[in-house]
Write a structure and sequence with these properties.
The structure is a homodimer.
Chain A lengths: L15 H22 L2 H8 L3 H8 L2 H8 L17 H15 L1 H10 L3 H23 L5 H21 L3 H5 L2 H17 L5
Chain A binds a DNA duplex through helix 3.
DNA sequence: TGGAAATGTCAACGCTCGTTGACTAGAATC
DNA sequence: GATTCTAGTCAACGAGCGTTGACATTTCCA
């Protein structure tokens, strides 16, 4: 997904700070406005840089999106939990991810009208969510089915809370969210699959 | 929401057929591409008219969206069902609505980057979903909380299936969807609210 | 120390978009 | 039958966008 050498192996460039500034501004703009409405000019402005520099570093607008929208859901940090604990733990983990990382909002806002962003969401689903669900559920055979259901509930909640801002969904406090959605996720992980 | 006189009371205009043609083209374009990417020029082209005519009839692009995105979820057609039947019936009803009416896709695609569309979704939630949930659950006091949960699951599933097109979510057949999501909706309607 | 590379700016291009106002043809009305 | 209203077209505008290439400045290295 990221064909650049990792930060550890690559020798530092003098422009790294500027690149990071641009990327951070891009994430914020993409998160707030989505791909189409977020302009390179505005992003460059936020970063205190000329628009042409953004092109120099990231090729074009799609390249900037690709560089900015590479989320890490940190699925490996979730321990393998028994039934009765896994659902709520998962909900809590996702809530934290959504609130800590602008990228997820950016990606969701963008993916509804931009197919390369949607493709990236499918990749995140396949590479991060599905394996995690397979591990937690212990049901390798139905893992992608279960992962699809988990994703539908988690992303639906994020959509209603962070994007559409439905008042009763915003009003919910974190413990209530965890207690409300936890059993749903639990059932999607461990419930019997209908015939 | 719609300040024009209804079709029944207003005397017919010679241009009604053209207006309907434009509206239908707009719905399709908005559904397929979202507000920003759908251009008035393309919509006018689909309808076989000049772009200026769209402006004449709907004022501006926002007015066209407002006229086109006025969904009816047909909530009144859902009978008051007992526990054990309501969840699955609701899922089935929403599935049909999403597949029959382009507007819902258009509205969702648009609402992620356009606040007036998001406002319209909040209105649909408040005027159509919440009252229906209040009626079905019989729990007037917690109706908006329950409605928020129901919306999060239903819209999340629609998002994953129709917009993001996650493969395992597309692969599910209708009976499986109903059996999988039904119990979740059921719990959101009738389950005890956590403290 | 001198030249090459890297970093960054500036002005402009070509394109598309929403929107406007003048205009034409046909229907309705008196 | 003259006039007024409605339906629709046409060409153009101004603005904003992504993108480009030429240029200035600073840093690195032999």
């Amino acid at each position: 997904m990221n064909d650049e050498p990792s930060a550890a192996t690559r020798k530092p460039r003098r422009s790294d700070a500027t690149r990071a500034l641009i990327l951070s501004a891009a994430r914020e703009r993409f998160a707030a406005e989505g791909y189409d409405r977020a302009t390179i000019r505005a992003i460059a402005d936020d970063a205190g840089v000329d628009p042409a520099l953004v092109m120099r570093y990231y090729g074009n607008k799609a390249g900037l999106l690709a560089a900015a929208a590479d989320p890490d859901l940190r699925m490996l940090s979730i321990p393998t939990l028994p039934r009765g604990a896994a659902g709520e733990a998962l909900v809590q983990h996702f809530l934290e991810r959504w609130e800590d990382d602008d990228i997820l909002q950016a990606l969701l806002r963008t993916a509804t009208t931009n197919d390369s962003a949607a493709e990236r969401m499918r990749l995140v689903f396949a590479k991060q969510i599905a394996p995690m669900v397979a591990r937690l559920s212990g049901d390798e055979k139905n893992a992608s089915y279960r992962a699809g259901l988990v994703a539908s509930q988690i992303m639906g909640f994020a959509l209603c809370r962070y994007i559409l801002r439905l008042p009763p969904v915003i009003a919910m406090r974190r413990p209530e969210i965890i207690k409300s959605l936890g059993p749903t996720i639990e059932r999607y992980l461990f419930g019997t699959r209908p015939v």
